[in-house]
């Protein structure tokens, strides 16, 4: 197979655009992680913490949480941009069904909205710390449940993304199929976290070792792989090779 460099100005612009947008996904996750670390929410506060202790924690870290809410808002913008770049590359697979592209776009948009909800609920939790502590506890619970269940639309997005990759039946697919299998397999590790709302302690609570740390570990692997291989794909045209 002859190697071809993208020389068309249009293709060069599209390559640059998607390579600019693809890192937005990992950056969105980084925004959330920095927020949690700076707000002393790493690991999260215990679901069993009393309302009064919860208010005390939020009061001591109010400035950091307020800044972290801004990071969540930024993350909610970045994630849909990442989704667009993914969709642009999936759409290049010959014969890919429009349903795959629509589901990938929709789940990515919902994922961005979920990150926004996390920021809104944390903002509500710290907005009036002089009110009844039980009200602050409710806002905090909503924030942590939104955080934990954010992986639901992400799970759909990763499943559809993997499906799309495997629809490329060419001898040399745009994205290696093993990336899809690793991606789909690791995303299954998120399923046990959907029991968070029925427990208050242990590994499946929102501050538990499984629910909190396993998704971060698997997400780190998944989104690194996806970003790298879609970045490479953005520079390939008509079975040719990468732009410089």
UniProtKB/TrEMBL annotation:
It comes from the Eukaryota. The chain crosses the membrane at residues 20-43, 63-82, 103-124, 144-166, 178-200, 212-231. Keywords: Membrane, Transmembrane, Transmembrane helix. This is Integral membrane protein. It comes from Aspergillus avenaceus.
